[in-house]
Amino acid sequence: MSHTPASARVVAVVVAYNRRDLLAEVLAALAAQESPVERVVVVDNASTDASADVARAAGDLVDLVELPRNTGGAGGFAAGMAVALADHRPDWIWLMDDDTVPEPAALRELLAGVSGTDAVVAGSRVEWFDGTEHPMNTPRPKPFAERRERRTAAERGVVPIRSTSFVSMLVRADVVREIGLPIADYFIWNDDFEYSTRALRGRRGVHVPASVVVHKTRVLGSTDADPGARFYYEVRNKLWMFRRSRSLAGWEKLLYGGSSVLRWVRTFARSADRSVLADGWRRGWHDGTRYRPRPNADALAGLGRASDAIAAVEAS
């Protein structure tokens, strides 16, 4: 396996759902990378706006995976990563949503950030339209990183991290084979928190400020902005993560659990309709404490080629 910028095979995975114009922009940006990607696996999550046609029109660079139902971001990334591993022999997998537009040097800088190191994950600086750093995708610095690690990282222009976002996350393919895929039943929210901390438990990762992507969300919102009914997923998935996942040590669950509670309090305080959040919290607490996420082979059954790839990756 190659970890050097000159020879690394990078396969991008883009999860798409009803944003065809943005998807076209993302695919054009990926085709224009200064360090070229080997292939782009586009997972169309049962879009109704001809996103699949946009992917097909992008040519041979794109491997289109059309799903018959919407599996959410978590299921889409699990499916796309499995197909990338099964069909394209990547050294690294580069993850992003269909509203994440990488600058031309984004991949080159990510690879430079990990070249010659034992880092297995790298994340980009995520900006909004106006160049502001997007608060929704801020990485978590690695707590208690050793002085030598911090100093070495600073000399390279990177920052040691404990988690990062699927909005431009580069992960080593051999690590994906070792730890498995994102948990599809998370559907949306916290799937990248769980997965990146799982990949980085006992391993190193870096934030690379020189690698820039633009996250073209409608508003510049942070993680404590009012999510409405989607607050259910925030609560349920955090409970699943803290109770079921082995991605965090016990002391980390206390640390990040406490910060989650404080963020929930801020979310309630700023909400224009607290009854919606209260309903999401009750349902999320119920499902997060009484149930557990299904194995991906069950959650993503019946998806044809994608299901076959998922079964093969998780069996190994």
Remind me, CATH topology?
Answer: Spore Coat Polysaccharide Biosynthesis Protein SpsA, Chain A
Give the overall pLDDT as a whole number: 93
Q: Biggest β-sheet, characterized?
A: 10 strands, mixed
Task: Name the helicity range.
Answer: 40-55%
H/E element sequence: EHEHEHEEHEEHEEHHEHHHHH
In total, the number of strands is 10
In DSSP terms (H or I, runs of 4 or more residues), the helix count works out at 12
What is Rg? Answer: 19 Å
CATH architecture name = Alpha-Beta Complex
Number of domains: 1
Poorly predicted ranges: none
Overall body shape: globular
* Protein structure class: alpha/beta
Strand content: 15-25%
What does this protein structure show overall?
This protein has 316 residues and is of the alpha/beta class. Helix content is 44%, strand content 19%. β1, α1 (20-31) and β2 form a beta-alpha-beta unit. Pathway: Cell wall biogenesis; cell wall polysaccharide biosynthesis. Keywords: Glycosyltransferase, Transferase. Its EC number is 2.4.-.-.
Walk me through the topology.
Layout: E1 10-16, H1 20-31, E2 39-44, H2 51-57, E3 62-66, H3 72-88, E4 92-97, E5 100-102, H4 106-114, E6 119-127, E7 140-141, H5 147-156, E8 159-163, E9 169-172, H6 173-179, H7 191-200, E10 204-215, H8 231-244, H9 250-270, H10 274-290, H11 296-299, H12 305-315
